[in-house]
Amino acid sequence: MDFERFLLFCAFDQGLPPFLGAVDSAWAANEAQHRLLLKKAASAAVHASVSHAPMRGGFVGLTEAHPSALQLGFDLEDIERVTEAAAARVASPRDHSFSPLTPAHLWCAREAAFKALKGDCQPLVVSQIALTDWRTREHDILQFTFTATGASSGQGYLWDDGEFQYALALWTPASHNEKGCRTPT
User: Fold this and answer.
1) What is the model's pTM?
2) CA separation for the pair 169, 36 (Å, rounded)
3) Which of 5, 29, 81, 122 is buried most, with the most CB atoms less than 10 Å from its CB?
4) Cα gap 96→56, rounded to integer Å
5) Domains along the chain with CATH numbers
6) Rounded distance, CA 21 to CA 157, Å?
7) d(C-alpha 176, C-alpha 152), whole Å
8) Concatenated DSSP letters for the chain?
9) Cβ(52)–Cβ(38) under 8 Å?
10) Nearest to 170 by CA among 96, 44, 67, 25
11) Widest pairwise Cα distance in the chain
């Protein structure tokens, strides 16, 4: 399994056309021109979600063949870099109900879901996203459902290559004009 096959699995599983996407050490946060290089690489996409860690960066993008309302979020992280303490800052008590979850799983899943929930449906803080219905799929891919207050649910996928954790979150608003996702405080 590699990153491109992970993306193909996610698209096929959702009945969608293939996503654009790639990862590269040249796009890592510790590279001086990483933002410019990553933006150029993702420019073929109609919409792209980007992520970068100190040693690797990447993007996943939508093409014109994808449904116009589909929103996505992508995150990658060095598995060893995400500590229990860091993951606990954004966790909820229900997060550990599925035994194989690691801090990197939880961190990346929340980050990707947060990016997918754009506009009024994006919660004010990442910890307000519920991650539920975890299941193991082929090739050690984990699938989950995510929701935020007032928003319809989305689907997410996690996979790692032994060094980096990758998360892709897909969300389509209940309607093109889904409003009022944030509740008054």
Assistant:
1) 0.91
2) 24
3) 122
4) 27
5) 3-171 (3.90.470.20)
6) 15
7) 12
8) --HHHHHHHHHHHTT-PPPEEEEEGGGSTTSTTHHHHHHHHGGGSSEEEEEE-SS-EEEEEE-TTS-TT-EEEEEEEEGGG--HHHHHHT--GGGGGSTT--HHHHHHHHHHHHHHS-GGGS-SSGGG-EEEEEEE-GGG-EEEEEE-TTSPPEEEEEEE-SSEEEEEEEE--SSTT----SPP-
9) yes
10) 67
11) 45
Q: What is the pLDDT of residue 2?
A: 96
Q: In what order do the strands lie in the sheet with 57-62?
A: 20-24, 57-62, 47-52
Q: How many residues does the chain have?
A: 185
Pair 74, 43: CB distance under 8 Å: no
Question: What is the rounded distance in angstroms from the CA atom of residue 170 to the CA atom of residue 2?
Answer: 20
What are the tens digits of pLDDT across the range 52-71? Answer: 999 999 999 999 999 989 99
Neighbours of 163 (CB within 10 A): 11
Task: Encode pLDDT of 102-124 as tens digits.
Answer: 999 999 999 999 999 988 888 88
Q: Mean pLDDT in the chain?
A: 89
Among candidates 153, 185, 182, 151, which has minimal Cα distance to 169? 153
